[in-house]
Structures are given as structure tokens and as C-alpha cells.
Amino acid sequence: MRISTLYWYLGQKFITAIIGAFLLCSVLIFMIDFVELLRQAGKYDDGGAVPARILFWMTLLRLPAYTEFLLAFAVQVGAIATLLFLSRKSELAVMRAGGMSVWQFLMPGLVIAFVLGVFATAIYNPIAADARERAEELFAESFGQEGNLLRSKSGESWLRQNGVDGQSVLTASHATNRGLKLTAVSALLFGPDGKFSARVDSDKAELKNGYWVMTDAWIAAPGIEPTKHKTFLLSTYLTPERVQDALGTVISVSFWDLPGLIEVAEKANISTSRLQIQYELLLSRPLLCIAMVLLAATVSLRSFRSGGIQTMVITGMLGGLGFFLLAEVSRQIGVAGLVPPWAAVWLPILLVSLISLTVLLHQEDG
Length: 366
Prior knowledge:
Layout (H helix, E strand, L loop, with lengths): L1 H40 L10 H16 L3 H18 L2 H7 L4 H42 L13 E7 L2 E11 L4 E10 L5 E13 L2 E11 L2 E12 L4 H7 L11 H10 L5 H11 L1 H13 L11 H27 L5 H25 L1
Antiparallel strand pairs: 1-2, 2-3, 3-4, 4-5, 5-6
Helix pairs in contact: 1-2, 1-3, 1-5, 2-5, 3-5, 3-9, 5-9, 7-8, 8-11, 9-11, 10-11
């Protein structure tokens, strides 16, 4: 009974500190994003084109997608704050005197971190993805801009795909409706054997179930005079439901939709590295939160009487920052296809976990 009461007390301290850190960061991000939207709105009719209430609502819709990446940071800051509070009140010293090891009074924090990680992946992420998708639609309506994977830096659009009739490469001067409609389209067609078969140029193309409908299309094939067709159908494994995700931003795709989207994108010969990285990131989030608690414990268990607390906390924050930088570099390496997605995501987390466990074992057992 006493142990359960103590665990409940520690759990309350951990969850309060973590939620407090998360809310504080969320408020800061909301203010920054809102100011950025105000700046963009100022480019359109001196800000009168987009009402402030629309910008406020758009910022709220974008906030969950931005803040879900802060969970690990909030867990680390909350765990450091909790352990320092317990140490300053000499409560950790009393627990140690009562025979509790570091693993026992860290257990509530580790359990809460794991539960928060599962909640963030299974529930919060789908909510954030849906809100982000609505925010993108509202952004496009308000500012007349859309962002998708089809859009290249040069202003043209490119898409490599596969279909029943073989592979093809599409280029278009403009993509609307998140990639469902293309204008000024050119398509290079390849047969099942991989050899070039024809080129199709049309004014516009619209994606249907299993094919693109290209209107006013000119077809040119080797050794054949170009011919014009009012309608030309180009097969594809993409569907209207999936292309909106495949050509949209990764953070607007729910965790539960990612496996099916990856499968369809692979059939359409679209690069899935970013999607696979995102899926592994979501899968690893519970372990990441646990690793942040362990990292926080390595710099927060020293007694206040021994001094050097500020140095230890700064060291811990720098260590957390170094980990996030390492994780981002590893993620970019995975996106580039230099290492498998699982290795790019899981290895940095396992590394920081093992280092933290080694430090804690050395501190406790020498």
C-alpha cells in the first residue's frame, strides 16, 4: 500500500511537469506560427484578404502536428524538473534511505513516458494528421498555394509511376487539387520490358480510379506520325484517395494510414523513404520517451548539498540537444536511402538508451 501510494505520488509529479513543459512549448509555437501567418497574410491586399479569425483557426489546426514532435523534449524537461524538485526537497534522499533504488523511483516516470508515447502515436498523431490536412486545405483556399511532393523547386511537376500497361513518367507545369489535376502534361511511356514506347502531350489530366484521363492528347511513337486524340487513358496504380496523401505532406498522414500508403506508393514507383522514416519514427516514440527519462536521470540525481547541479542540468540539456541533432542527421541519411529506415530511426535511440543506462549503473553501483 505504501509503495503504491508513493508510486502514485511520483507519477503525479512526473505527469504534471511533463504536461506543463509541453503546454509552455505549445504556446510559444502557437504564437510564432500565428505571427508567421500574419506576415504571409500581409502580402495579400495589406492583410485584408484573410480575416484574423481564419488565421487563428488555421494556427490551431496546424498546432497539433507541430507539437507532437515536442513530446520527447517535454518528457526530458519534465523528468529533469521532477527529479530536481524531489532532490531539493530531500525526498530522493529519504527514498534511498528507505532502501529504494534508482530503478524503483524512476519506474513511475518510465511507465508514464511509455504510455504518453503510445498515446501520441496511436491517438494524438491521427488527430494531428487530420487537423493538419484541414489546415492545408484552408491555407490553399486562403492563400491560393498548395505544397506537394509532385512540385519541384524549378516550378515544374514530376511523377514516376507504374500501371497495368507499364511504367511512365509525367511532367506538368501546374498541379491543383493536391495532385489530382494536372495542366500542360507530358508523359513518357515505357512498355512492360522497360523500353520507351511513346510520348503523350495533353492540355490537362485528371486522376480517376486506376488511370489518368488526358484530354486533347498528342501521341508520338517511334516510327509513327503524331496523332491527336480527344481522350487518352494512362494506367496507374495510384487512386484518388491515395494520391492526395502520396503527393501531400508526410505529417498530414495518420499513423494507421501509413502502411497502406507505403504499399500503394511502392506500386506507383514513388519514393517511400520519407514515408517509411515517418512510420518508424512513430513506432519508436514510446522507446524515445523512455530514453529521455533515462537521460534526464543521469543529470538529476545528485544531491543539492554536493553542488554542481547547474552544471549537470546544462550538461543534460546539451546532451539532449546533441541527441536530437544526431537523430535528425540519421533521419536525413535514411531519407537519402543510405541506410535502412529502421536503422536511421532506432539506432540513435538505442545508443542514447545504452549510454544513459551505463551512466546510471556507474552512478549507483560504481
